[in-house]
Amino acid sequence: MDIDVRGPRFGAAVTTLVLAAVLVTGSAWLLAWQTLAFALGAAGGVGRSPYGLLFRKAVRPRLGPPTEFEAPEPPRFAQAVGLVFAGLGLVGYALGPEWLGLAATGAALAAAFLNAAFGYCLGCELFLLVRRVTVRTQ
């Protein structure tokens, strides 16, 4: 079942704010929250992530009906990619080196910002690239 494209984009906007706050404060706890949000989105799909639930319950009812839909697999894969980067960032902030926390969090922030501001999902594009490569090699 396809999903409303506005949901993942809303999640990316919230993620952008959270990751920006992590970079400003250096808070490993805040990054741990974002890592959990990515994990839930990767495991259950973006609709089951905290930001997806917030979109469905509080934001979507205030919007008109969706006009664009997308397959759920690419955004779910993107959540898994975000989970990897947030996990690396969490390791860097909690255990060191700090540059790892900054770099991984910055990379995740850049990807989230691209999706939130321009609707360009790097993780989704990576999913499609991996899919093309694996289909050709089989």
Description:
With 138 residues, this protein is mostly helical. Helices cover 78% and strands 3% of the residues. The chain is built from 6 helices and 2 strands, in the order βαααβααα. The protein has helices at 6-25, 28-44, 50-59, 73-95, 98-118, 122-137; strands spanning 3-4, 69-70. It has a two-stranded antiparallel sheet. α2 (28-44) runs antiparallel to α4 (73-95) and α4 packs across α6 (122-137). The mean pLDDT is 96.
Please give a handful of descriptors for the protein shown:
two-stranded antiparallel sheet, 78% helix, mainly alpha, 138 residues, 2 strands
Helix run count: 6
In N-to-C order, the SSE pattern is: EHHHEHHH
Strand content: under 5%
User: Main sheet, how many strands, which sense, barrel?
Assistant: 2 strands, antiparallel
Poorly predicted sequence stretches spanning 5 or more consecutive residues: none
As a whole number of angstroms, the C-alpha radius of gyration is 15 Å
Report the span from N to C terminus.
26 Å
Q: Mean of residue pLDDT?
A: 96
Structural class call reads mainly alpha
Write the layout of secondary structure elements.
Layout: E1 3-4, H1 6-25, H2 28-44, H3 50-59, E2 69-70, H4 73-95, H5 98-118, H6 122-137
Antiparallel strand pairs: 1-2
Give a summary of the structure in a few sentences.
The chain contains 6 helices and 2 strands. With 138 residues, it is mainly α.
